[in-house]
Amino acid sequence: MITFYTIVQEFWAMKAVILAGGFGKRLKPLTDQIPKPMIEVSNLPIIEWQIKWLAGNGIKEFIICVGYLKEQIINHIGSGSRLGVRVGYAVEEEPLGTGGALKNAEGLLSGQSEFFMLNGDILSNLDPSKLRDGGAAHSLALVPLRSPYGVVEVDKSNKVLGFVEKPRIKDRWINAGVYHFTSEVFSYLPENGNIEMTALPALAKEGKLRATTYDNVFWRSIDSHKDIEEAAREMQAANIS
Fold first, then answer.
1. If DSSP states are collapsed to H, E and C, what string results for the chain?
2. Angle at CA 164, nearest 5°, toward 39 and 146?
3. Which of 65, 121, 159, 225 is the most exposed place for a label (fewest CB within 10 A)?
4. Which of 172, 181, 177, 171 is nearest to 202 (CA)?
5. Catalytic residue among 166, 205, 208, 226
6. Looking at the domain 15-144+171-238, which fold is it?
7. 144: preceding bond cis by omega (within 30 degrees)
8. Per-residue pLDDT of the chain (241 residues; tens, 9 = 90+)
9. Is 205 noted as a catalytic residue in this protein?
């Protein structure tokens, strides 16, 4: 008989892979000197926020896929002991894309039947365990699409009722960059290429990919200089520390 303790321990033993090897071209010139996951939001690097978030959800083992300016990430995170976790590194000697980066980490996931993966430029407080619900082998997190613009609300006579700053758009969802996979995913991955263009469409076509929606959570992708400031304000408002 499987006890509750056994189930919890199994979840805690799972690993999370963080894709942290990209160039961060849209954040130049900042990323000329530091890798994107080391950009600070409220005085902490993005990657440190990510480890703290996932560790708070019971994940204690990490593999970080590094490439561009990798020494800064390795020197800052190290073995992970400072953060109460264990960390290993899969090094890209040349850019491999998101799919190739995960493929490059396959050896470090040997014997791991399932694991989480996330992009190294997102901040969130979503519960990753929900991705394992429903029995699907492979799943991705979805969050509501957010308008890049403020929206003006009007009535039928075009009277202005008010203004809403960058609202979430109902019934439209985007990829949050957080995944749950089984080891089967490696047979779909390219040696070099992006997972969004290769493995994910193939899994979806075969009916093997499930979406988990997260409506009322904090989520932010750091894609521009403005995102850094806005994310800091939103994290403070959401009481994320």
1. CCCHHHHHHHHHCCEEEEEECCCCHHHCCHHHCCCHHHCEECCEEHHHHHHHHHHCCCCCEEEEEECCCHHHHHHHHCCCHHHCCEEEEEECCCCCHHHHHHHHCHHHHCCCCEEEEEECCEEECCCHHHHHHHHCCEEEEEEEEECCCCEEEECCCCCEEEEECCCEEEEEEEEEEEEEEEHHHHHHCCCCCCCCCCHHHHHHHCCCEEEEECCCCCEEECCCHHHHHHHHHHHHHCCCC
2. 45
3. 159
4. 181
5. 166
6. Spore Coat Polysaccharide Biosynthesis Protein SpsA; Chain A (3.90.550)
7. no
8. 333 333 444 444 689 999 999 988 889 998 999 999 999 999 999 999 999 999 999 999 999 999 999 999 999 999 999 999 999 999 999 999 999 999 999 999 988 899 999 999 999 999 999 998 877 789 999 999 877 677 778 878 777 877 777 767 777 899 999 999 999 999 999 999 999 999 999 999 999 999 999 988 999 999 988 889 888 888 888 788 7
9. no
Q: Which residue has the tokens 């806005």?
A: 230
